[in-house]
Amino acid sequence: MVSFLLDDGRVVVAEKDCGCLPEIHSGPHWLYMDDYYKRKNHAFLEQNTVLGYLAFVNEEMARLRILEAEMTTRHIVKIIREDL
């Protein structure tokens, strides 16, 4: 389960906001995509080359910019992940 701490102090449950199958993901689509790109970017590190490291840094900077924009738009200050 995922919740968000909002800038007004409230904690809200992250709701599904797309038509993806429940087997794919249960929370917001933008958060699912962030997790996907995070995993994808780590594959660059497996190359163990300078170009791989540079690609990782470049792609992670882009991912984090998008994540920051999504969180700012929704007034989210923290993502709370509760693993079962």
Describe the model.
The protein has 84 residues and is α+β, with helices and mostly antiparallel strands. The chain has 2 helices and 3 strands. Helix 1 packs antiparallel against helix 2. The model has no long low-confidence stretch (mean pLDDT 94).
Helix/strand/pairing category = alpha+beta
Radius of gyration, rounded? Answer: 15 Å
User: What is the H/E string?
Assistant: EEHHE
Strand order, biggest sheet? Answer: 2-1-3
Helix count, per DSSP?
Answer: 2
Low-confidence stretches: none
Mean pLDDT: 94
How far apart the termini lie comes to: 8 Å
Helix content: 40-55%
β-sheet strand percentage: 15-25%
Main sheet record: 3 strands, antiparallel
State the total count of DSSP E strands.
3
Judging from the principal axes of the Cα atoms, what is the shape? globular
Furnish the topology, listing elements before pairings:
Elements: E1 2-6, E2 11-13, H1 29-42, H2 50-73, E3 76-81
Antiparallel strand pairs: 1-2, 1-3
Helix pairs in contact: 1-2
Q: In a nutshell, what does this entry contain?
A:
The chain has 84 residues and is an alpha+beta fold.
Notable characteristics:
single chain, 84 residues, three-stranded antiparallel beta sheet, alpha+beta, 2 helices
